[in-house]
């Protein structure tokens, strides 16, 4: 639901995907961090996991993308509609979402982010170094290239 996360998704992520993820230079991992003042963010995060439960990683990311493409209309009704459009068993999805099957898992990731010092979104870690806010692609490129160069000289740090 975060507009800055939406900006990252539409403007920056495609470049990172093309230049680093698809080339195998970078592993990209999502962690949930639904902000409390975004009233639909928690259920949206759970919805992606509920689709993933039935459709695997591909289904998770299809729902994830649909959520970002429709940030202004994240209602429970729409989450259920979009999940069905992706071919899930509607009754199983509804039960998963309505009963909060993945609420604890989402909250655990929120807590993990808080332990790492995350207080807002978006937040990124590149080999353990935090980059926060709606940063332009050039900032990611600079940090990623510096870490890749350090890795090639034997000074690589652990990715988080």
Explain what you see.
This protein has 160 residues and is mostly helical. Helices cover 60% and strands 5% of the residues. The chain has 6 helices and 2 strands. Strand 1 (123-126) and strand 2 form a beta hairpin. The radius of gyration is 17 Å and the shape is globular.
Provide the descriptors you would attach to this structure in a database record.
160 residues, mainly alpha, 6 helices, 5% strand, disordered C terminus
Give the SSE map.
Elements: H1 3-21, H2 41-69, H3 76-85, H4 90-98, H5 103-115, E1 123-126, E2 129-132, H6 137-152
Antiparallel strand pairs: 1-2
Helix pairs in contact: 2-3
Brief overview, please?
Helix content is 60%, strand content 5%. With 160 residues, the chain is mainly alpha-helical.
Radius of gyration in whole Å, from Cα? 17 Å
Helix content: 55-70%
Q: Can you summarize the main beta sheet?
A: 2 strands, antiparallel
Compute the number of helices. Answer: 6
Global geometry: globular
Distance between the termini: 24 Å
The topology string of helices and strands comes to: HHHHHEEH
The count of DSSP E runs of length 2 or more, i.e. the number of strands, is 2
Structural class: mainly alpha
Low-confidence stretches: 154-160
Provide the β-strand percentage band.
Answer: 5-15%
Mean pLDDT: 93
- Strand order in space, largest sheet: 1-2
């Amino acid at each position: 639901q975060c507009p800055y996360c939406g900006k990252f998704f539409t403007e920056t992520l495609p470049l990172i995907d093309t230049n680093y993820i698809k080339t195998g230079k970078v592993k990209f991992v999502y962690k949930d961090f639904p902000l409390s003042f975004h009233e639909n963010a928690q259920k949206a995060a759970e919805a992606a996991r509920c689709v993933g439960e039935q459709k695997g990683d591909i289904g998770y990311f299809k729902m994830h993308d649909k959520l970002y493409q429709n940030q202004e209309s994240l209602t429970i009704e729409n989450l259920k509609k979009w999940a069905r459009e992706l071919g899930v068993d509607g009754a199983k999805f509804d039960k998963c979402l309505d009963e909060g099957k993945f609420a604890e898992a989402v909250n655990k990731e929120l807590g993990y982010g808080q332990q790492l010092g995350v207080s807002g979104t978006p937040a990124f870690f590149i080999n353990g170094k935090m980059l926060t806010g709606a940063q332009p692609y050039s900032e990611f490129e600079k940090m990623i290239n510096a870490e890749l160069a350090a890795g090639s000289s034997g000074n690589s740090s652990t990715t988080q």
